[in-house]
Write a structure and sequence with these properties.
With 453 residues, this protein is α/β, with parallel strands linked by helices. It has 12 helices and 18 strands. The N and C termini lie close together (11 Å).
């Protein structure tokens, strides 16, 4: 992967693709809505509002649909599991006689577990909220605490059947996707649930806990270093409650939508790609001067936050054909808090794009009036692997004529065969760079190689 914000954006800011995401509904009782004598299916409005605010289109998927999970998910780019009643205790070996269990729906349990496992296999991003996080844990073999008020020493987490909620803090794992998405070590969360994660399921990691030790966030662990598309995040609280006032909570919907948008533009199953067009230009002697002009603007905007600014990507390599976009790597003392650097860069004319796939990268860009990309700015922590690996690759191309020529040939081939599929274009370049890494032990190349071009 190059980066979510750089190569993987659409050709125009004014025609940004809006991914279609499936939101699984729950059954409404016969008397829940006036004059609905036979009940229905529904999703609370705040979930839909927050997803639309993030740029997604939404469609409700109701329990009872027939067909294989692959067929049901085929039209969609992402999956959202929302709150609701308890899972059937039989799904995780719980006590069926627990008196506080409510609104069990075996039909919904089966559908959501099957959809979630299938979405993961298809590398479709998923956001799992409250009950949805519990489904995620159970789907991968985990268990649940069946009634939190029965456990000693816990904070108040709210009781859904009594319509109570609680605001409490959640500490975020600094190495997690949750951190990459929210960029906050501590989140203020709206909570109303009476069950929670007990034993964590296989392939899952804990990414957040409340101060009483209760698991509040989990996520699937990438299978390999290059597996950036496995974005499945579960949170026990309700971010939709406070996302309108709290940017860190809205970032969960924004990060999910970003991953869904990337998937929506990827070529797959015979469907052509629809990402930003790959158009290579011949080497241009003006590229270094354009870098210097942008670097001066960035230094003026960020001041002492900046420890290093470097020209990277193919426009930084003499004689290399490249998309005519200047890629700049900005090393900062810290990427958190996000607004410390985002606000001045936006004020300077750059546009921010959330990258929820890694803790070592943030992204802003500047476009022409017609939407053509002019500059990609990649922000990373000083001393990070992101910083080291991109500088290593640039310097390798600058110093090795044979590698430079081989990379140029590959880029020309890919630009001809994958003109509207930036994802395959980037993946094939990553394979090339892995080959360079294999020939040089200790090369600082990790999962997101070859930033920008």
């Amino acid at each position: 992967m190059t980066d979510i914000g750089g190569d993987r954006t659409p050709a125009s800011n004014h025609a940004e693709p809006r991914p279609l995401v499936a939101v699984v509904a729950y059954r409404l009782a016969d008397d829940r809505v006036s004059r609905w004598t036979r009940g229905g299916y529904g999703v609370p409005l705040p979930y839909i509002e927050r997803l639309r605010e993030a740029g997604a289109r939404t469609a409700i998927l109701a329990p009872g649909e027939t067909g294989e999970p692959e067929e049901l998910l085929e039209p969609f780019d992402g999956l959202v599991l929302v709150g609701g009643g308890d899972l059937d205790p039989s799904t995780y070996g719980g006590d069926p006689s627990e008196p506080n269990t409510y609104d069990v729906s075996a039909e919904r349990d089966t559908l959501e577990i099957d959809l979630l496992r299938t979405a993961d296999r298809l590398r479709m991003p998923a956001l799992c909220i409250c009950r949805g996080m519990q489904v995620l844990n159970v789907a991968y073999g985990g268990t649940l605490h069946q009634h939190l008020p029965s456990l000693p020493g816990l904070l108040e987490h709210g009781v859904p059947v009594q319509d109570t909620e609680s605001l409490h803090e959640v500490d975020v794992d600094p190495e997690s996707l949750l951190m990459a998405t929210t960029r906050e070590r501590t989140l203020r969360c709206s909570s109303h649930h009476h069950q929670g994660v007990d034993r964590v399921g296989e392939e899952l990691r804990v990414s957040g806990r409340s101060r009483d030790g209760l698991v509040e966030a989990i996520e699937l662990v990438p299978e390999t270093d290059d597996d950036w598309t496995r974005w499945v995040v579960g949170v026990q609280w309700h971010p939709e409650d406070t996302a309108g006032e709290d940017p860190a909570q809205q970032a969960l919907f924004q990060g999910f939508t970003t991953m869904a948008r990337v998937r929506s533009t990827r070529a797959r199953d015979g469907r052509p790609g629809s990402s930003r067009v790959v158009e290579l230009a011949e080497p241009d002697a003006r590229w270094p001067a354009r870098f210097e002009d942008e670097a001066a603007k960035i230094r003026a905007a960020l001041g002492d936050l900046v420890s290093r600014i470097e020209h990277i990507g193919s426009t930084s390599v003499p004689g290399m054909p490249a998309k005519p976009v200047i890629d700049i790597q900005v090393s900062l003392t810290s990427l958190a808090p996000r607004d410390a650097w985002r606000a001045p860069l936006v004020a300077a004319g750059y546009r921010y794009r959330l990258d929820p796939s890694t803790i070592e990268h943030e992204f802003v860009h500047r476009d022409a009036h017609d939407g053509a990309r002019l500059v990609n700015v990649h922000l990373c922590p000083s001393g990070s692997r992101w910083e080291a690996r991109h500088l290593w690759f640039r310097d390798r191309l600058r110093s090795s004529e044979s590698d430079r020529e081989a990379y140029a040939r590959l880029k020309r081939e890919l630009a001809a065969t994958h003109r509207r599929d930036m994802h395959t274009y980037a993946d094939r370049k990553t394979t090339f760079i892995r080959g360079l890494e294999a020939r040089e032990d200790g090369a600082p190349i990790d999962r997101q190689v070859a930033a920008g071009d």
